[in-house]
Amino acid sequence: MTTIVLVLQFVLAIILTIAVLLQKSSSIGLGAYSGSNESLFGAKGPAGFLAKFTFVVGFLFILNTLALGYFYNQAKKASLAEQIKVQKPIKKYPTIPSVPTTTNKTDEAPKAPTTK
């Protein structure tokens, strides 16, 4: 379904671009090449028809963009970050040695040597 909507998005973008370029502007633009169309669309020329056509195609383009975003969001509910497996690190550092036991039966500290 997303493939059809994506292809339709490209087609609508091309049609919308052509419709905008064919409209008459202050600098005339590409509208100068459609001079023979004035008799086909009436006395006003293509201005009224092209304006309505551009509005309709633009509206369809926006609706298609929203549909495309919705379908992509439904297809990609899970993030790539959620698929990463986290492993516990292996202990490679030495363990802390235990407190040495005293050989003295009394809990007194050894006496300092004396000088003579």
Tell me the layout of helices and strands.
Layout: H1 2-22, H2 38-41, H3 47-75
Helix pairs in contact: 1-3
CA radius of gyration = 40 Å
The percent of residues in helical segments reads 40-55%
What is the tally of beta strands?
Answer: 0
**Averaging pLDDT over every residue, what do you get?**
77
- State the low-pLDDT regions, or none: none
Biggest beta sheet attributes:
none
Count of DSSP helices?
Answer: 3
Structural class: mainly alpha
Q: SSE string, helix = H, strand = E?
A: HHH
Q: What is the percentage of strand-forming residues?
A: under 5%
Q: First CA to last CA: what distance?
A: 100 Å
User: Which word captures the global form?
Assistant: rod-shaped
Question: How would you characterize the overall build of this protein?
Answer:
The chain is mainly α. It has a domain of 75 residues. The chain has three helices and no strands. Helices cover 47% and strands 0% of the residues. Helix 1 runs antiparallel to helix 3.
Concise synopsis of the structure shown:
The protein contains three helices and no strands.
